[in-house]
């Protein structure tokens, strides 16, 4: 289960629409709660992939992750996951997502169709790395 | 040398939920090997084999990526902060 506020959900939808036709990406700060994660804040990250690839790829550099780890510690939070958009593609993790994911983190995927944000889903990679499990998104006011 | 190794959230489950562990070593490689010896589950997660880190694992010493220094041979001062940082990618 991944808990989000309505405000954070809206920020991710807006980021997906603004980045279209490219992928947006960012970091979720929060904490571990019973049965999953709660998100308290989000940090949009500039997609570090070369511009010609951004329509289907995102990259958060080690430097951005290092800074985000320090930010999280200052806020008394931890990095609980990431969000990215799938422009004109279903809100399902791809093989590429699986090959680059780590267990523990929550991965939010937002489908953006013709510039409009649509279905948002969340996923966690199994420890075996073989597949993602779908994770319930709980949106609170 | 005694250094502090900061553990990213995704790897804390392999080090008894700690966000930071202490390690001994004169280089980054020695300090990480010292941590890996104490926490074999972490070793499996971050090492590809006995001496090389997995591709997604990046290491920073006092804020600088060791790729810009001497890699695992980068010397560490007493009290240095060594951060293990995963790179994150995806798409479709
Ligand atoms: Zn994806």
Total of DSSP H or I helical runs spanning 4+ residues of chain B = 2
How many domain regions of chain A? 1
The major beta sheet of chain B can be summarized as:
5 strands, mixed
Q: Give the total of beta strands of chain B.
A: 6
Q: Write down the Rg of chain A.
A: 14 Å
Q: What integer is the average pLDDT of chain A?
A: 96
**Estimated radius of gyration of chain B:** 12 Å
| Helix content estimate of chain B | 10-25%
In N-to-C order, the SSE pattern of chain A is: EHEEEHEHEEEE
* Terminal Cα span of chain A: 16 Å
CATH architecture of chain A: 3-Layer(aba) Sandwich
Largest interface: A-B, 35 and 21 residues
CATH top level of chain A is Alpha Beta
Distance between the termini of chain B: 44 Å
CATH architecture of chain B: Roll
Strand fraction band of chain B? 25-35%
Strand order of the largest sheet of chain A: 8-7-6-5-2-3-1-9
Overall, the morphology of chain A is globular
Write a compact overview of the structure shown.
The complex is a heterodimer of chains A (141) and B (92). With 141 residues, chain A is of the alpha/beta class.
Task: Describe the protein in words.
The complex is a heterodimer of chains A (141) and B (92). Chain A has 3 helices and 9 strands. Chain A is an alpha/beta fold. In chain A, strands 8-7-6-5-2-3-1-9 form an 8-stranded mixed sheet. Chain A is globular and about 35 Å long. The two termini of chain A are 16 Å apart. By secondary structure, chain B is an alpha+beta fold. Chain B has a single domain, classed as Beta-grasp domain (Ubiquitin-like (UB roll)), CATH 3.10.20. Chain B has helices at residues 28-38, 40-46; strands spanning 2-6, 20-24, 57-61, 64-65, 81-86, 88-91. In chain B, strands 2-1-5-3-4 form a 5-stranded mixed sheet, with helices on one face. In chain B, a hairpin with a 2-residue loop joins strand 3 (57-61) and strand 4 (64-65). The A-B interface holds A 23, 25, 49, 53, 56-63, 65-66, 69, 72-73, 78-80, 82, 84, 86, 89, 93-94, 96-97, 100-105, 107 and B 6, 8-11, 13, 19, 56, 58, 60, 63, 65, 83, 85-92. Zinc ion sits between chains A (84, 86, 93-94, 97, 109) and B (90-92).
